[in-house]
Amino acid sequence: MHYLFRKRAKKSLYWIVMIAFLVIQAYPILWLLLAAFRSNRELLTEPFSWPHELTLENFIKIFEGSHVLTYIKNSAIISVISLVFIVFLSSMASFAIAKMKFMGRKKIYRYFLIGLTIPYAVTLIPLFTMFSRVGLIDHRLSVILPLLAFQLPVSIMLFTNFYRFIPDEVIEAAIIDGSSIYGVYTKIIMPLSLNTILTVVAMNFITVWNDYTFSLVFINSTALKTVSLGLTDFIGPRGLKDWGATYAAIATSILPTLLLYFGLNKKITSGMTLGAVKS
C-alpha cells in the first residue's frame, strides 16, 4: 500500500511539473497571439486580462501601411538560399570526413568544430571592412555568407555523426555494383539522410529567419530589410510604440518558424538521436 502511494505521488508530481513547464513555455506565445488581435486601448489599460474584443485592425494596418510583406520576402529569399547551401555543403563535407579515408580528415573535422566557439560579435568589424571593399554592403550576400559560415559547423557535426552510423558495407556494395562516389552520395547517402536533412533545415531555418545582427550591420535600405530588422519600424518618435501593430508583426514573423517546428517535430527528434548510439 505504501509503495503504491509513493508511486502515485511521484507520478502526480511528475505531471504537475510537466504541466507547469508547459504553461511557462506556452503562455508567452499564446499571449502574443491574442495580443495581436487586441486594440491598443485594451493593451494599454488591461494587458493581461482576457480579451474583451478581437479585431483584425492590427493586421490590416501592418499589411497596408508598412513594408512587412517586403521584409518577409527578403527573409524568405535569404533563408532558402542559405539552407540550400548549408545542406549541400555540410552533407558533402561530412560524407568525405565520415566515409572517405584520407590523411588529416580528423583535423579537418576539428577545424570545422572550432567554428562553434566563435561568437558573431568578434567577426563584425573584419566582415564589414571586407564587404565594404568588395561592394557587398547593403546586399543579401552580406547576410547569407556569414550565416552560411556560422551554421556549417553544427550542420557538419550532425551529418558526420549520422554518416558514421551507416555501415561501410552499404557503400562498398554500391561501388562493387559499379556506382561512382557521386552516385553513392546522391542515390544512397542522401535518401538515407532524410531525417538528418530535415533536422538541419529546421534548426538552421530558425536561426537564419530570426537573424538580427548581420542584417542590422550590413543592410541599410528598406527594400532589403529582413523581418526581424523591420520590426523596429513600429517604434515611433521618442520611443512611442504602436503595440497592437507591433504584436501583429511579431506574430506574423514567428508563424513560419512555429509551423516548421511543429510540422517537423518528430523528424527533428529522430534526426537528433540518429547516430547517437553505436549498433
From TrEMBL:
Pfam family, one: BPD_transp_1
Membrane topology: Multi-pass membrane protein
Domain ABC transmembrane type-1: 72-264
Keyword 4Fe-4S: no
Keywords recorded for this protein, A-Z: Cell membrane, Membrane, Transmembrane, Transmembrane helix, Transport
Superkingdom: Bacteria
Transmembrane spans: 12-37, 76-97, 109-131, 143-163, 184-206, 244-264
Gene Ontology terms describing biological process: transmembrane transport
Gene Ontology CC entries for this record: plasma membrane
InterPro entries in the cross-refs: MetI-like, MetI-like_sf
Protein location: Cell membrane
SUPFAM superfamilies referenced in this protein's UniProt entry, alphabetically: MetI-like
CDD domains on file: TM_PBP2 (cd06261)
Keyword Transport in record: yes
UniProt family annotation: Belongs to the binding-protein-dependent transport system permease family.
Protein name, entry field: ABC transporter, permease protein
Species in which this protein is naturally found: Shuttleworthella satelles DSM 14600
